Amino acid sequence: MIGRLNHVAIVAPDLEAGAAMYRDVLGAEVSDPVDLPEHGVTTVFVELPNTKIELLHPLGADSPIAKFLEKNPAGGVHHVCYETDDILAARDKLKADGMRVLGDGEPKIGAHGKPVLFLHPKDFLGTLVELEQV
């Protein structure tokens, strides 16, 4: 059902400083920031040879990331994203197995322009899980 690790998302209290740290200190290739109003975030992707790091920053007062930063002012790991070939089949199996899909259960278009779903952290060892169809 799940494939490779697509990315690990980290909330950054200062997106520019976070991007500069990955680019200038660690030597990684870093994308330009992209606003995703439908998700309430601004994202930057750090390209690694085997996966990506997604830096997240709140976009607007209603951003779910703003609430995360209130609880974790220094930022921190927000979620992990796994790839799946068939997001609807994965969703249906997970729900049949008693796992909770967040929101209305319908995939939304994510930062890569592909369908995504989020799974409740209490069902996955305290970790928010994103599935992305590839």
CATH class: Alpha Beta
SSE run: EHEEEEHEHEEE
| CATH architectural type | Roll
Instruction: Report the average pLDDT across residues.
Output: 96
Total helical elements: 3
Number of strands: 9
Please report which band the strand proportion falls in: under 5%, 5-15%, 15-25%, 25-35%, 35-45% or over 45%.
35-45%
CATH fold node name: 2,3-Dihydroxybiphenyl 1,2-Dioxygenase, domain 1
What gyration radius follows from the Cα positions, in whole Å?
Answer: 15 Å
Q: Number of folding domains?
A: 1
Indicate the low-confidence ranges by residue numbers. none
Sheet with most strands: 9 strands, mixed
Distance between the termini: 12 Å
Shape estimate: globular
CATH homologous superfamily heading: 2,3-Dihydroxybiphenyl 1,2-Dioxygenase, domain 1
Task: Outline the structure in words.
With 134 residues, the protein is α+β, with helices and mostly antiparallel strands. The protein has one domain: 2,3-Dihydroxybiphenyl 1,2-Dioxygenase, domain 1, CATH 3.10.180. The protein is built from three helices and nine strands, in the order E-H-E-E-E-E-H-E-H-E-E-E. Strands 1, 2, 3, 4, 5, 6, 7, 8 and 9 form a nine-stranded mixed beta sheet that branches. A hairpin with a 4-residue loop joins strand 4 (41-47) and strand 5 (52-58).
